[in-house]
Amino acid sequence: MVGVLAAWMLWSAESRAQQGFEPRMPVKRYFDDTRTLLPPKSTVRIRNPRGNISVRIVPRPDVFITATRHAAPGPPVRAEEVIIEELPQQLNITTDPPDTTTGVDLEVLVPEQTYLRLMSEIGTLRVEGLPAGLIATAYYGNIELCLPPEADADVTWTSVHGRVRAEVPLRQFGTPDDRALHGQMGRGGAILVAQADRGDVVATALPPENSARERPVLHRPATATVEEPVSAAEGSDVVLETTLVVLNAVVTTPNGAPIRGLQLEDVVVLEDGEPQDITYFGTLETPFNLVLLLDLSGSTREKLAVIRRAALGFLATLRPEDRMAIVTFSDTARLLCPLTNDRRKLRERLDEIRRPEGGTNFYDALAGTMNSVLREVRGERNAVVLVTDGMDNVLPPGGPDYGSVTTYEELRRLAQECDAMLLPIYLDTEAEVVERYGARARLGYAIARNQLRELAALTGGRLFYAKTVEDLEDCYAAVAAELRAVYSFGYYPKQAQRDGRFRRIHVKVRREGAVVRTRQGYVMPK
């Protein structure tokens, strides 16, 4: 028997306009017939490892959930098997059935203009209608998308061992492949990402009478595989496949204090001197995706305990809704933990860091991070915190036959095409390396510092300095303060032709003395 678990009644449009939304502290509870208020354009995350997830987009202002046992016969679904977590602008739904029973199947009705993040290991994921943005990950099950044929969307659908099939009108990018499809429906807009491992990805047309109105917005990432090597070549053709341009901008007073309370009308975005219409505005409270990229080569190998402690301190400064991934590198980059807000898992991964061997392939590590970890989160508030001296082994005292395959010019191009803010923490190891290799190493360090400074400037970040590993904690505190001053703006360029040209961006804020720092521009794909 289907058991109706909950209906979350949201404000009507008139009520929202009159009352507004007050962010709450995070609340986690079992289902108990609770009603909760969510602001418009919220994110609904559903994690149901042992069952199916079916989501329908409906023109109504409430979220409605039903749950059934995944395989009959079995006991009725109990309240404690469905965990609900409320965060500002986000609702998390997680199932946790006992090991002695089969899993739970969820059917969820969500309002239009809702971001969806869905995950199942053994079940099928099905979405009917066009959400504001979608990221769906299935391991052994299929992903079924029933989309309005007139939808405007940018799609990235892949299956490792299964097949990808589209029965909806779209324009494909690249070479046709029955295991990967990148393309555009209509004018492009809502970003829809589906990743299957063993199952298929199938997109069919939704009958017109069941179509939901579309709104092009942002998307969330698929989880990466834990402890996989991060390859600089993986997905190295990073380009903007949608015309949506998202800017992360630090807005402060002249003395560096964050300016709070900005509204959409306070911001002007110019592309090549032409004002743009801002269609997305993310406040200081919008969650961040952070990648912590740790250089474990050279002299840092002997100070892993200090590096762990400082990283744990940085983790403690993040808000509950912020997600973090951990990548370490020496001559090989490894993803220790994909993007998650599971603090326990992140702490465990940091505790598991071991002394590495090999050289320093910094360019490959950062390129791999942008291509692998951040590829599917383009359009969100993304940042990479790099703890490194920047001394790739291609720099003196090394040379062309050492270090990364990725060149600095290639890395620079990737930084321009990726929308993540780069925040390097320069870890000064110069004295020790010069003592070992001689004065020629000083040239390498001068080049490395200039490169880190340029990468930060290109993306709207800035360079921080740590004279010793023990100074990392203070640097992390400064980075956390920097992130609390970041707004996000999104727009569709008025000059929409895909010409492969670099578009220069300038952001103005209508506040006296406001200082704005954001990425310098982007490359429009051909």
From TrEMBL:
Residues 289-483 form the VWFA domain. InterPro entries: CLCR, VWF_A, VWFA-rel_acidobac-type, vWFA_dom_sf. It holds the Pfam family VWA_2. It comes from the Bacteria. NCBIfam families: acidobact_VWFA. This is VWA domain-containing protein.
